[in-house]
């Protein structure tokens, strides 16, 4: 918490070039791009970083092959180039993965047409991934026995990419990058009001944790509030050419359905794509695409029944999946961009709405608004926002493109030389577990060197701290000092993916839970545990 307190002090009464409102992927990349080019940047979010839309994605980094259906070839081209760029910049985090499209009776396209589309998609992406492979039903059954091939007409495997860790962790890497070059980023700070006086924005803020009032000045505001962008602009009487509408997406996390590290893709009964996506020793089923009017969503019984019914029909499981098999759930909205228009958009084909983003500039009010956006396209968003801020008169240094990406090859080699000398990977006894060296490098980059030093001094730092969660004591100490964890869910859900792959009851009963809370929150540990688990937690602990 010391880092957050220090940033709050720097935020209060500060004068900045840019105030960014929203700490999701759009705000995070904007902060990283601007700070790296010399701008003084403040970023706030009324919740945690990546605490809303950006923690509910499919963890896919892809060019959007399904957008070819609506002939959005320029969008697909742009997304494919963005995917390729992320794969180059983040080789440990963004990795190629096969997508096996199974074409059954609900497929709206014959196998030959899907094959043509897959090869076109490969070409649009400059052939930077493995080539597509058409498959017969017999081949699908041989390589993925879990797939029910009754009625299957064939299939094709093409390649895209995905995040090895979770989406929120990826977002935080940009927050951390921005702070490393001078940005002031603080979570749980709400923008209560802002007015423009004599060419500057005067913002009145509230620390949600303490209730304390804060204020700052900024030349430019970047509205990166995602689903809440329109209401924020309306509070400033700012009119835009675009607006946001919402599509609800739901994912269910279950035990691993196939040991093969590939995505299984199916058409559901309404002829929309849904997936089985690997997440370590878990599988993620989703997503839905439902039009909603409220950005606050949750998983309903109807959502569960739909996804479980669809996947049970398409997989050959010993026992059909039931609600009791669900380990964790994800529900969020996609803020989709539409042109602002006088007529109602109710009759627009929902699934045909473009997933592109738009960056608008209001010159009079000095506001940049980011509509839409995807994890895949995040680097483009950061660069476009930097260009927009420069147009509004904020001087920026030339872009050296050092605000994103993993450390270079020589740094990586030096890290792995040290881990081999320390025999770090020999500490893992779990069969099939990812080597510790790879995981530490992927998650922490240069900060992992300090962890090696800590392990040398105290071997207990290399012990798992939360039963089978595969999270080391040294990682937790690093998180406590450098990752601004305010609530237990910030750690369990966003800095790590523990609550995505571990049942809530298992986390509650973990022997290491109190040590986790003590390291993160010190004397507030018990209060934070009660805040997260509810009033029955203390009673159950006493019984145990």
How would you characterize the overall build of this protein?
It is globular and about 70 Å long. The strands form two sheets. Strands 3, 4, 5, 6, 11, 12, 13, 14, 15 and 16 form a ten-stranded mixed β-sheet that branches. Strands 1, 2, 7, 8, 9, 10, 17 and 18 form an eight-stranded mixed β-sheet that branches. A hairpin with a 4-residue loop joins strand 17 (358-362) and strand 18. Helix 2 (25-36) runs parallel beside helix 6, helix 13 runs parallel beside helix 17 and helix 17 crosses helix 18 (525-533). The protein is an alpha+beta fold. The protein has helices spanning 2-11, 25-36, 73-89, 111-124, 137-143, 167-180, 229-235, 301-314, 378-391, 409-422, 436-444, 447-457, 473-482, 488-495, 498-501, 504-508, 513-521, 525-533, 536-543, and strands at 14-21, 41-45, 60-61, 94-103, 133-135, 154-163, 184-187, 189-197, 200-207, 213-223, 242-255, 262-267, 273-279, 282-286, 290-292, 328-339, 358-362, 367-371. The chain has three domains: 2-54 and 168-241 and 354-391, FAD/NAD(P)-binding domain (3-Layer(bba) Sandwich); 56-165 and 245-337, D-Amino Acid Oxidase, Chain A, domain 2 (2-Layer Sandwich); 409-543, no CATH class. It is built from 19 helices and 18 strands.
Chart the SSEs and their pairings.
Elements: H1 2-11, E1 14-21, H2 25-36, E2 41-45, E3 60-61, H3 73-89, E4 94-103, H4 111-124, E5 133-135, H5 137-143, E6 154-163, H6 167-180, E7 184-187, E8 189-197, E9 200-207, E10 213-223, H7 229-235, E11 242-255, E12 262-267, E13 273-279, E14 282-286, E15 290-292, H8 301-314, E16 328-339, E17 358-362, E18 367-371, H9 378-391, H10 409-422, H11 436-444, H12 447-457, H13 473-482, H14 488-495, H15 498-501, H16 504-508, H17 513-521, H18 525-533, H19 536-543
Parallel strand pairs: 1-2, 1-10, 2-7, 4-12, 10-18
Antiparallel strand pairs: 3-6, 4-6, 5-6, 8-9, 9-10, 11-14, 11-15, 11-16, 12-13, 13-14, 17-18
Helix pairs in contact: 2-6, 2-9, 10-12, 13-17, 17-18
